[in-house]
Specification:
Length: 50
């Protein structure tokens, strides 16, 4: 059986809890460097608010 045959459709509830929701602000097609910078900025913001 192929991987695609094992996939199931996500419900709207599962879509709301996406694992990649923290990347919503990253432009589509961004590379590793842009993603790394985005995550570093978010981490700095989070740490500064503590």
């Amino acid at each position: 059986m192929t991987d695609s045959a094992e996939c199931k459709a996500k419900t709207s509830e599962e879509d709301d809890e996406r694992d990649d929701a923290h990347l919503e602000d990253v432009e589509e097609g961004a590379g590793c460097t842009e993603i790394w910078e985005h995550l570093a900025e978010k981490r700095e913001e989070r740490d500064a608010s503590r």
